[in-house]
Amino acid sequence: MYSDPVGRRIKIINNLMKRSMDKFFGQRPDRATLMHTWILGFLQNRQDAGKDTFQKDIEAEFSINRSTTSEMLKLMCKNGMISRVPVDYDARLKKIVLTEQSLKFNRELSRKMNELDKILIKGLSESEVETFLKLCDKLIDNLNESL
To answer: Which domains does the chain have, with CATH numbers?
Structure first.
């Protein structure tokens, strides 16, 4: 029977990341999941760069489909992590911005995520990390091509 060695390891790493984050951060008041945390970081980086962010940007960045993204953003709005704000140049568009609550949490979150990243890559050389990232990008490209 085929055991899918690459996909299985990716799933194991994903599970361990979720468990590590839960242990490392504890229960966040806004009930952010690991994916929410990554989205909040993405939003913070884009806001810091002066870029507006829309749902399609999140879909593209994280390779998640439209309905999943929409539901996740609704939950994040409900939990006070983000707001959807109309833009003056297109009545159909609403940019996604961080709330004051999330801006406060992001400072601490960023510090803790950097610590978690150090734990994740402990014992790896810079070259190994670069190789890993290149391999992951190739796997992502391969899967995107097959869709």
So the answer is: 5-146 (1.10.10.10)
